[in-house]
Amino acid sequence: MKDRTYKIEEMFLSVYAKKSIETKGREIPETPCPMRTDFQRDRDRIIHSKSFRRLKNKTQVFLSPEGDHYRTRLTHTLDVSQIARSIARGLSLNEDLAEAIALGHDLGHTPFGHAGERVLNSLSPTGFQHNEQSLRVVDVLENEGKGLNLTFEVRDGILNHKKSGKPATLEGCAVSLADRIAYVNHDIDDALRAGLLKESELPEKEINILGHSPRERINSLIFSIYNESDGKNFVALEKEKSDALDNLRAFMFDKIYITESSKMEEEKAFRMLSAMFDYYIKSKDKLPPFYKGLLDNYKVEQVICDYLSTMSDKYAVYIFESLFIPKSWTLSGELK
């Protein structure tokens, strides 16, 4: 079955695609699976990881939104995966590799979205970036400290998925673009649903270029990537569409991502995470056993960031309350 996949890839994938048989492999050699390619195995390992499941309760943009239809970090990840596969399919790239990178790209994201990331980056002397933490999750933290032992290409795509990154594969480039396409368009959708934006407030020029709905804009951007990149050794948008997407992203920073109300919520996240960070700096023996074990090989600041960044929003609130909020007593003298 795997050999058939190799043959199909050889016949139909672009000369610029990363074919499964060409992988640089894993840091720790393993017996190959007789059915799945290495990229398919990586995808499955990520889907079955604890970090992937925790994404369902991590903020995308809106902290603890009331309602079932707002994006979470998990639904964002699925959006990116779908868009990345569409790009890869259009350009005859390796869909399995693109999917694996997309599913793993945000595994290291903090609770409370980018607000949480900025907090940990300000607190830790070693800094904190979610793409670097995502790689640390798959290399070190998952599988009870053994890591997932993913292929070089998937690890590289995870590390380099930010706009500033330089992925080693075109599939990694596809995921990087898919990430921006997904969050800009779906964050607009959530902001409209929340009443934080009106359709009339969206920048007219960019909307006319890209489309008047998330579906239209996403389709327009995927077609633009195809028009610009088909048969070429790069993945990019046409300049007009690229500029429009960048301008739309800047609009969202101005109107939604960095506003007075969002700063108020970020301040709450800062107080919560910084209090827990300081607590564990002074009482590292109170860390859970797994993280205490990491102290043998890593600095305490790194390990505390490991622990805090794995938390879902709800679990972070629960731990904060258990550490700092007094419990009431019953008349019998027992904690209530």
Question: What do these coordinates show?
Answer:
The chain is flat. α4 (73-90) runs parallel beside α11 (214-229), α9 (170-193) crosses α12 (239-257) and α13 (260-282) packs across α16 (313-324). The chain has helices at 2-12, 38-47, 50-54, 73-90, 95-104, 113-123, 130-141, 152-159, 170-193, 204-210, 214-229, 239-257, 260-282, 289-294, 300-310, 313-324. The longest helix is centred in the middle third of the chain and has 24 residues, at 170-193. It is mainly α and 336 residues long. It has one domain: Hypothetical protein af1432. The mean pLDDT is 92.
Write the SSE topology.
Blueprint: H1 2-12, H2 38-47, H3 50-54, H4 73-90, H5 95-104, H6 113-123, H7 130-141, H8 152-159, H9 170-193, H10 204-210, H11 214-229, H12 239-257, H13 260-282, H14 289-294, H15 300-310, H16 313-324
Helix pairs in contact: 2-5, 4-5, 4-9, 4-11, 5-8, 5-9, 6-13, 7-8, 8-9, 9-11, 9-12, 10-12, 13-15, 13-16
